[in-house]
Amino acid sequence: MFYLNLVLLPLVGAFIGWITNLLAVKLLFRPYKPYRFLGRTFQGVLPKRRYDLARSIGQTLEKELLSLDDILRYLREREVPERVVVLLREAVRQAVLERVPGWVPVAVKRPLAEALSDLVGERLPFLVSWLVDSLGETLKEEVSLARLVEEKLNAFPLEDLERIVFEVAAREIRHIELMGAVLGFLIGFIQAGVLFLLRL
Asked: What is the pLDDT of residues 30-51, one digit of tens each?
């Protein structure tokens, strides 16, 4: 019986370590709603602190990762204004060809469409750049990426957030559970060793 206990100690320790880490990971999200028990309130860490976390994530995103200035700089550097001009020129050309009455000869429609498209091509680059700059200034004054991210995260259902986290971090979560089992096994093994030495 004594030797059976020596074998069981590491196995029970591994099971306790595994189940403890499994529960710890689950308790990050659960319970979603607060429950009172013995005069104390219990709730998952993320549901309890979701508003603080959403605010912190939004602020970190805006300050450290992606500001409106970064987005506007990206729009300017990636030649977005030029691409917008190309798209608008084609849209003007198609609109003229489709909307000019059918009784107007094609020989007139096409040059008219090309002329208007060229006119748009000449004038729009400045206008698009000005729009990007002026809209950028307006966006910087009126839009906060931090607040947008915070609102989106606060509106996101906790069940979906939990599912996504467990899908994305499945390997890491299994690693945490396995490490709990390994540590529990080692602690049980040390206990068994101590018991064995005390028996001598």
From this structure: 888 888 888 888 888 888 888 9
